[in-house]
């Protein structure tokens, strides 16, 4: 990606899961963050969460005016089979979505971004929440706090570029 001196990269950071945490630094240097829910309803098939996630990505791209790079939490171990399946499906949806739009993406190992955020690679959920609040953010939950921490890692370690 080539940028002129007066353009700022728009970066999206994600903590993938049924409740996905997200944080974006837009082209005006504002950091926005929140969560999005991708739980299928009782009368839907399990694939609906991935269709909704793809639609959410499209809407995020439109609202931000463009995304220059995506960083997501690269989880290597899940405690439950269901969580592992959901993560894999969301990751597949995300990476194919990025490929289709030529948006660079990269997974950030959990220990890497936690060490950057909290000084400890195995920090617990509360430590991440506290660290993000100490930085002036007000995440509603650990998913949102994780996404903010991933975004800050990207911005502070490599300029947010994949």
Structural summary, described in words:
By secondary structure, the chain is an alpha/beta fold. It has 5 helices and 5 strands. It has a 5-stranded mixed beta sheet with strand order 3-2-1-4-5. A hairpin with a 3-residue loop joins strand 1 and strand 2. Helix 1 packs across helix 2 (81-101), helix 3 (110-118) packs across helix 5 (142-158) and helix 4 packs across helix 5 (142-158).
Provide the fold topology.
Elements: E1 11-15, E2 19-25, E3 31-37, H1 48-64, E4 69-74, H2 81-101, E5 105-109, H3 110-118, H4 125-134, H5 142-158
Parallel strand pairs: 1-4, 4-5
Antiparallel strand pairs: 1-2, 2-3
Helix pairs in contact: 1-2, 3-5, 4-5
């Amino acid at each position: 990606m080539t940028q002129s001196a007066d353009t700022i990269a728009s970066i999206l950071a994600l903590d993938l899961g049924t409740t996905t945490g997200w944080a974006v630094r837009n082209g005006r240097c504002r950091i926005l963050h929140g969560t999005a829910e991708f739980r299928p309803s009782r009368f839907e098939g399990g694939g609906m969460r991935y269709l909704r996630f793809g639609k959410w990505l499209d809407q995020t791209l439109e609202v931000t005016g463009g995304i220059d790079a995506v960083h997501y939490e690269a989880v290597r171990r899940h405690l439950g089979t269901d969580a592992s399946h959901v993560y894999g499906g969301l990751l597949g949806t995300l990476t194919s979505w990025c490929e289709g739009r030529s948006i660079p993406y990269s997974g950030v190992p959990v220990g890497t971004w936690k060490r950057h955020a909290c000084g400890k690679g195995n920090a617990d959920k509360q430590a991440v929440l506290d660290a993000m609040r100490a930085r002036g953010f007000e995440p509603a939950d650990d998913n949102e706090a994780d996404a903010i921490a991933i975004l800050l890692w990207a911005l502070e370690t490599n300029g947010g570029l994949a």
